[in-house]
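ok trying again, last paste got cut off:
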Amino acid sequence: MSGSAIRNTAEISKTLNLQNTAKRKRILIVEDNHLNLRLLDDLLTACQYEILKTSKGWEAINFARDGQPDLILMDVGLPDICGLDVICLLKHDDRAKTIPIIAVTAFAMPGDQKKGLECGCDAYITKPIFLDTLLRTIESFLSPLPPIDNAVMPPSEIEPSLSASPRSRLMP
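nice, full thing came through this time. structure:
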């Protein structure tokens, strides 16, 4: 990846107002395509995330259990085990079930997203990936949101988009 691409990812991060907390968030990338893995690694490193990476599903299970990432980006088409099976195993594992998992996959046929969500992934993004969508989705899981104190402000005075869902503030 060229220096200008890194500069562009930093600009995307700044434009999207991504917040980095004192503790760097750890993301596990599970992707068998070397170029996709490198692109995601470069992008997320430029955004100040700590990266764990693997191209194998069974390794991902061990990383998730032992490395305790804050989030997992999971390709569905892996060489050793289907990514959806990895997601199911992790969501039933006491050591990993609370880790948000975003499926990042080329599987875009009707029903693929539904199948992914039924397996337990928390979000489903199809390739080709739009970087702003990916970064906003990641931030929606990793950025703490300030609490909305309804006791201080009556519900009728709260901006409608905020009272509907606190997470909606992160998305346009």
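cool. The CA atoms of residues 23 and 83 lie 28 Å apart. Residues 3-170 form a domain with the Rossmann fold fold (CATH 3.40.50.2300).
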